[in-house]
Amino acid sequence: MQTFHSHDNLQFHRSLHHHPPPPLQRSVGIIGAPFSKGQVRDGVECAPSKLRAAGLLDRLRQQGCAVKDYGNLTFENVALDEPVNGSKSVRTVGSANQRLSEAVKAVKRDGHTAVILGGDHSLAIGSIHGHTAAVGPVSVVWVDAHADINTPLTSNTGNIHGQPMSYLLYELQSKLPPLPNFSWMKPCVSSRDLVYIGLRDVDPAECYIMKLLAVKVFSMTQVDQLGMARVMEETCDYLWDRTKKPIHLSYDIDAIDPSITPATGTPAVGGLTYREGVYITEYLYQTGLLSAVDMVEVNPLRGRTEDDVRSTVSTAVDLLLGCFGRRREGNHLPDYSLPEP
Ligand SMILES: [Mn+2]
């Protein structure tokens, strides 16, 4: 008769995972940021409540996380917010991001991994700013179909959700005009500490900027060439060349192929598969360094059907669960014990 000792179970686990388990990022602080003025389409401000309604918090708790919900931020609409150098809603975006920066700083000082539920991608300005204000320099992993690195002077649309990276990088400060309601904001990311994954819709000026600054890019071409496992290995090798810093993951849902996540403002064909998208989160979780996560550009009003919205929201939830230890091989709580007959 074969007996089954918990010791056997342990051996089995050791053979599966060559490394000891990493420190767990199991304390999650959630900030809802229902903000949409970094672009022009209504609906993206509904995403935080949709993500909560899809069970995000309960499911994080079920997989062993301590979750604190800081609720939704409220943002003021600045009156008479006329375009500046062609950029729209600059004052509104500036004051919203100042508020978000303070909120993220507070969540980090409380000791949580911060989760920012957008909202559009202009929120990365305040999110990354507040993150670095609390913990010092960070590595940024930007998963997106777009580079979002236009300056206000190169942008074709004037939508600030296509510009946040240019505000954040030290190296581009001389290229930015002064902007109202942005005086609180100081650049806080070195181009050496930025990696893009999933790019496939990049403006000429953005392409030029990334070459000028020698930014590390894994476009969809490199994802096709290397496979996502190698992309993630090379991402971390690159970021850890000097020191291991806390990681800020800024995840735009439009990085995933629109066949899976159609409910978003600027879909681009030829994106990441669900599996590639989830793999990024699983990989970053097991580094033990994930310190803040943005989930942005889910727009429930952009789906043509209920299924479009459901698929987009549930994928966003799965990506966030992956950031906090969900494994496709299954999970159990550390104190689980088999019922005795
Ligand atoms: Mn984006």
Automatic annotation (TrEMBL):
Pathway per the UniProt entry: Nitrogen metabolism; urea cycle; L-ornithine and urea from L-arginine: step 1/1
UniProt record, GO biological process: L-arginine catabolic process to proline via ornithine; urea cycle
Domain of life: Eukaryota
Annotated spans, Disordered: 1-26
Cofactor binding note: Binds 2 manganese ions per subunit.
Biased composition (Basic and acidic residues): 1-11
GO cellular component: cytosol; nucleus
Entry keyword Hydrolase: yes
Name of the protein: Arginase
